[in-house]
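The authors assume throughout that readers already know how a fold can be written as discrete tokens. The format is easy to grasp once an entry is in front of the reader. For illustration, here is how one protein appears when written out as sequence plus structure tokens:
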Amino acid sequence: MEGKISLDLTEGSWTAGGGMTFTRVSDGRSLRFTGAHGNLAQRSISMDAAVGDEAANPVDLSTYELDMTKMTVTMPSLNSPGSVEGKPFDTMLTQDGAAVFSRAFGASPVPTGSSLATLAGRVDVVPTLG
């Protein structure tokens, strides 16, 4: 994961590689998500989405609220990088996210505004020098 964030988590962005593919067994229809992009100020996650063999297009997939009581921020020191660690939190499906699921499979797995996924994670934070 790469990006620039404020340690109070009010601004910045990040990008992560990897992805996931959903495939319906009955007819082989698929939806592939790659390249997650996060915007801390907007509390949003977008991904590149490809329905079947179509070219991937960016879609605003989900939003989230950040409960700072579930976050641990460790400041960097000369001996170690800092870190941001988040305990599990829900992401809510956006209207655009629901639309791409509907285009791929005829329906969205959850209604707009409902929890799409629960995330947790830890990233090391390296301060910029200069």
About this structure: The mean pLDDT is 91.
